[in-house]
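Hi F.,

I've been meaning to write this up properly since the lab meeting, where we talked about keeping a consistent format for the predictions we share between groups. The idea is simple: the sequence comes first, exactly as it goes in, then the structure tokens exactly as they come out, then a line or two of notes. No screenshots and no reformatting. I'm using this chain as the first example so we have something concrete to point to.
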Amino acid sequence: MTKKAFVFPGQGAQKIGMGLDLFNNFQLAKDLYAQADEILNFKLSELCFNGSEEELTKTINTQPAIYVMSIAVYKVMNEMGIKPDITAGHSIGEYAALTAAGVLSFEQGLKLVRERGRLMNEAGIRQPGTMAAVIGMTYENVKKCCMEAYQAGIVEIANFNSPEQIVISGEIAAVERAMEIIKLKGAKRVIPLKVGAAFHSRLMKDAAEAFVKSIDEAEFNQPAIPVVANVSAAIMTDPEELREALKKQMLSSVLWVDSIKAMADFGTDIFIEAGPGKALSGMIKKTNLSLKTINVEDMVSLKKCEEALTSLI
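Output, unedited:
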């Protein structure tokens, strides 16, 4: 029996025009964007479809934009009878995963991601930071390089994306120093990322502490399917455990490699990336070549997904 995982992308996947194809072809996508515009009290739809890249890449806008499009893809697939057996999301994508599992309502999830984006944006202004992707170095060696760079400030591992890619995060001078050390120690590539803050590092401490109140006030329902938590890569079915994991997420590393392994061990054969881009599909392939990946973000990819799933039945 084929098991499907829905995985939802994180920040960096956004692009102008995201979601427009689904909006033009499905009434439920139109309704979802209309609901989002009303909840947020601004035209998120207009920003996503026709806005400026500069505005869309602001953390306060990026996070709800990715969330809404991801849920639009999920709802379209759900209407077509394509449903997940387990779910996970990368960083902000975890909120879409919780919504897809029925833990959060769409409205509750959207309000949380908007507030999360606001707090993280403010934290980035108060304590400027940056991030960089390291290609071709082991987790242990990256960690050693970060410790060596600590004299220049805070720098930590933010994301364990694949066996080949690890993301570091922290204060600008410390990240730059770590990049120099990592290059000298033989990494294939070190790529500075265009981000507004040092996500998943201790520089998010104030934002994370302020956000706990919002998480505590949110209603967490019993999940219909298991969710894999970023902070532990544990498969969870208890709403209160998921709440506690989410409280730690902003400060913790995203254990994406371990999350993929957990879903594979669960018996997942197919990973469907629901939302903009193909970044997660690439990470999954680099983690385990035997896993089937499909991305869905528009009508063309939706049709390919439907055809691929039909051929496997």
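Notes:
The chain has a mean pLDDT of 96.
The longest helix spans residues 59-79.

If this format works for you, I'll send the rest the same way.

G.
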